[in-house]
Amino acid sequence: MEPDAAMFVWRASDAVLAALLVLFAYPFAIYPCLIRLLARGRRAPAGEFPEGEWPEAALIICALNEEGVIGEKIENSLALEYPDEKLRVVVVNDGSTDATGEIARRWTPRIELIERERRCGKAANLNRVIPSRTEPVIVLSDANVFYAPDAVRRLVGRLADPEVGCVSGKVALVETVEELKASEKQYYSIEWAMQEAESAFYSMVGADGAMYALKRQLFRPVPDDTIIEDLVIPLQVARQGKRVVFAPDAVGRERGVASLGEEFRRKVRIAAGAAQALVRGNGWPAGAPWRFWFIYVSHKLLRWLAPFTGLAALAWAGWHAGTALSRLTLAGAAALGAAALVRLAAGPRLKALDAPFYFVFGQCAQLAGFLKGLAGRQPVLWSKADR
After folding, report:
1. Could you tell me if residue 204 is inside a domain?
2. Would the pLDDT of 382 be above 80?
3. pTM surpassing 0.90?
4. Which among 169, 208, 289, 327 is most buried, taking Cβ atoms within 10 Å?
């Protein structure tokens, strides 16, 4: 090959590799800075209804084998600071095989208890319960999440803005396994900052399934076997031209995972749910404004595809290993993998390697989950952790 032709090939191969590396890094390193820059000078919707005009709301709690926490959750829900007689607590006992239903019945008729003989999953229950409600606002919660007294008021208040259709709260994890505690704290601080910026710029994409509210008329049923309904339901809201915003002052707490294996399975499930939604088409924001598409592609789609982009970059670098950029890419990947393995072996004592470990851990789970979702092998009924 002539020198000029060889130089052109090397330059072209570096250009392809550079593009793959940018695509891989963009959702993690570039977009978080970019969205904060774009949100500068803007304010996310925040407000309240005038006294006497707060809408009626149904707080729907789906519970499966939650005998250890359901009583505390009901007491927590009944103590929420919301206008009297305007908040109805609804507990859906999803075929529990323990004493969940028996314990919940102690609070009737102060709460409404719906009992399922057979377990059918959260999405199926929401499809049956929400359309039958008369309250204009629906608040969705998990049974193991405890709200601050003003949390529901903070959520619902933002729905006073006619542009807002869904509001997500801020759920802090407590008692997380030591191996993940520091990494998880850092991850969520970055994630919450992005959600605030996205809400100011236009809208979030999904919501925290443990704490979010939406206007009932915007709810659209999802397939009963939907894996992550807290992605698909808010997307349906956005597809109707309404915003999904973050309420950082609507605070709750939830017990974190108890093991690395539990966290890996959780991440696999989320990734599988994303793949399922993309394949079915209800994971795309068809009809949403361009600003929502920008956030969706930047924050969600490119993250979901990151393991594949990263593997493509490594394969390309290996194929064109003669260039400096290729050698640097391969060396960087090897160093990142080695750091993650050392941190895995050393445990939480080696805090300096928390970030590379958590990143590689997440990418492995994302890859496994996405492939599982594409193959349709992730069941909607999860294996609940024994706490």
Report:
1. yes
2. no
3. yes
4. 169
